[in-house]
């Protein structure tokens, strides 16, 4: 007799997500496991700076406050909790949770996973001298803790999907080489990891649903690795093939999606509606994981500051030129980098002052805090009565702020000490995968038949295509998909890397990869270097590339009339 389905929910997609989500998920319906994802590359930098000030810090304190409100409810409903909120100090968060449980009089067994922290060995491993250095661990430490009876499992830097793969492996009794089951759970975990992004949050076709307060997602996982993505009844948003596909293509690369325990083949994923707010994921194939683990490195890159001049009315270009010359001449020692951007939001003969305004933004970066502190922002303020007419700024003078640089690295998995610390304190070493497979590109998927010739109309790409974009360090990705076979034939033949560069001039000089996913009628662009040295360092106004897909959807292209007729039918 096969085990019953496992219901795993998610209540956090980042550090700062909806505080009430844990209670909403616990009260909203049946669950076996509730996960919370708090970590991103930038979060590790933030926690690293916290730890510099206080060695006992380094974990997501928000989670501890959430448990103060919800732990009794989780115990009452017998819902186990798995979270990476441990950040840089999973042992510290585990101890704080035990103290909380004692204070609340609750019989809670807490375990944690450690070993991702490589900072002490960074030099020996050839990783330099970073502020933080954390390997992405997999699911088997989590599974070991759950098999030992843990009610809460706290981890540091594990892959986001491992929060789902670990409970699934423990529940279904999967072995280390049950590749397809592990890969299916990995795909479900990828869909859940960003919370409401799977239920209508940040969704391109948001006008088709009630997106005001989307609920958080959950997955019903099955022993064969298939799953159904859904949400609690009565919650906002929606779960559809499109909302799931939007998250599936978020922050990914090609057909092979590698993790520490398995490599999932995204070109095998099948999605199908399975009822109201229910989408089945099946057909996922898995392969052995690569022999190396990815490492998140953060270092302090220096200091930065910025200011924005408001330019109103006539002669915008001349005003921008004047204040730029004045500020650069006023700086006693120029910063290492000054990046100017003029944003022409102004309209001719504007009916309001705001509609007559353009914005000149300047970002200063330098290793020396003084060069980008008051010496920079004060110099801008001193121009207030001696510059262009209508001079005004959006912010008062400020001090410089440190910024970080994210770099990915890779180490032999055998060099990382993955350890499960069970509720009774027993330490269990988790061996790396015995069988591995070096990561290699999949042969490009064949193009579909070309679209039929016929009349076209020039419209925004977003009339027929949805998109979601995101970041991995300095790399941005844009996943796009369409809803009909005819639109897919057009998209696959039309939106090439060369066409993308023409539509998005910022991308013209950068390396662009394109990956096709015919089963999903989707494709993914990976753009290397668009975000500079990563989120904290990037000088783009959209440093994480989250709106990049919406910019692309707003660009005008020639679309066959027949495809547009299908959209409006």
Quick synopsis:
By secondary structure, the chain is α+β, with helices and mostly antiparallel strands.
Question: How are the SSEs ordered, and which strands pair?
Answer:
Elements: E1 6-10, H1 21-28, E2 33-36, H2 41-53, H3 61-77, E3 80-83, H4 90-104, E4 110-114, E5 132-135, H5 140-147, E6 152-154, H6 162-172, H7 179-192, E7 217-221, E8 227-231, H8 241-248, E9 256-258, E10 263-265, E11 270-273, E12 279-282, E13 285-287, E14 292-312, H9 316-330, E15 337-343, E16 357-366, H10 369-372, H11 374-381, E17 392-393, E18 401-412, E19 418-421, E20 427-430, E21 456-460, E22 466-472, E23 475-481, H12 485-494, H13 497-503, E24 512-517, E25 522-527, H14 548-554, E26 556-560, H15 561-568
Parallel strand pairs: 1-2, 2-3, 3-6, 4-6
Antiparallel strand pairs: 1-7, 4-19, 5-14, 7-8, 8-12, 9-10, 10-13, 11-12, 14-16, 14-17, 14-18, 15-16, 19-20, 21-26, 22-23, 23-25, 24-25
Helix pairs in contact: 1-3, 3-4, 5-6, 6-7, 7-8
């Amino acid at each position: 007799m096969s085990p019953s389905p496992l219901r795993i929910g998610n209540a956090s997609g980042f550090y700062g997500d909806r505080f009430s989500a844990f209670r909403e998920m616990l009260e909203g319906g049946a669950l076996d496991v509730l996960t919370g994802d708090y970590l991103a590359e930038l979060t590790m930098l933030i926690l690293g700076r916290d730890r510099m000030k206080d060695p006992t810090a380094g974990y997501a304190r928000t989670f501890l406050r959430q448990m103060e409100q919800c732990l009794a409810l989780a115990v009452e409903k017998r819902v186990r909790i798995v979270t990476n909120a441990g950040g840089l100090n999973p042992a510290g968060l585990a101890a704080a949770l035990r103290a909380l449980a004692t204070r609340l009089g609750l019989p809670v067994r807490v375990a944690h996973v450690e070993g991702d922290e490589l900072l002490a060995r960074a030099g020996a491993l050839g990783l330099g001298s970073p502020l933080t250095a954390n390997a992405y661990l997999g699911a088997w430490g989590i599974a070991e803790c759950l098999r030992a009876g843990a009610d809460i499992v706290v981890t540091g830097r594990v892959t986001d999907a491992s929060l789902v793969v670990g409970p699934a492996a423990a529940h279904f009794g999967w072995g280390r080489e049950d590749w397809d089951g592990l890969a299916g759970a990995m795909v479900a975990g990828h869909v859940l990891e960003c919370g409401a992004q799977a239920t209508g949050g940040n969704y391109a076709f948001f006008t088709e649903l009630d997106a005001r307060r989307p609920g958080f997602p959950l997955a019903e996982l099955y022993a064969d690795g298939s799953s159904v993505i859904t949400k609690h009844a009565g919650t906002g948003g929606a779960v559809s093939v499109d909302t799931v596909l939007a998250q599936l293509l978020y922050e990914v690369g090609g057909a092979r999606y590698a993790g520490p325990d398995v490599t999932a083949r995204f070109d095998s994923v099948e999605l199908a509606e399975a009822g109201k707010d229910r989408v089945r994921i099946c057909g996922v194939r898995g392969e052995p994981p690569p022999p190396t683990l990815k490492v998140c490195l953060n270092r302090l890159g220096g200091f930065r500051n910025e200011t924005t001049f408001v330019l109103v009315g006539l002669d915008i270009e001349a005003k921008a030129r004047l204040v730029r010359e004045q500020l650069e001449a006023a700086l006693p020692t120029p910063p290492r980098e000054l990046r100017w951007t003029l944003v022409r939001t102004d309209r001719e003969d504007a009916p309001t002052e705001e509609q007559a305004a353009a914005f000149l933004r300047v970002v200063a970066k330098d290793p020396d805090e003084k060069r980008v502190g008051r010496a920079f922002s004060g110099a801008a303020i001193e121009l207030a009565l001696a510059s262009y007419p209508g001079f005004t700024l959006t912010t008062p003078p400020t001090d410089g702020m440190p910024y970080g640089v994210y770099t990915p690295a890779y180490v032999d998995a055998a060099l990382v000490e993955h350890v499960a610390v069970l509720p009774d304190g027993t330490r269990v070493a988790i061996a790396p995968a015995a069988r591995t497979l070096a990561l290699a590109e999949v042969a490009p998927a064949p193009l579909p038949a070309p679209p039929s010739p016929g009349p076209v109309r020039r419209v925004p790409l977003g009339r027929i295509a949805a998109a979601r974009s995101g970041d991995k360090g300095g790399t941005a990705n844009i996943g796009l998909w369409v809803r009909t076979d005819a639109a897919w034939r057009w998209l696959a033949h039309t939106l090439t890397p060369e066409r993308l560069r023409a539509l998005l001039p910022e991308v013209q000089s950068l390396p662009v990869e394109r990956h096709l996913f015919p089963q999903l009628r989707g494709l993914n662009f990976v753009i290397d270097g668009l975000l500079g040295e990563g989120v904290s360092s990037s000088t783009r106004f959209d440093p994480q590339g989250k709106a990049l897909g919406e910019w692309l959807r707003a660009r005008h292209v020639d679309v066959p009339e027949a495809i547009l007729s299908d959209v409006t039918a």
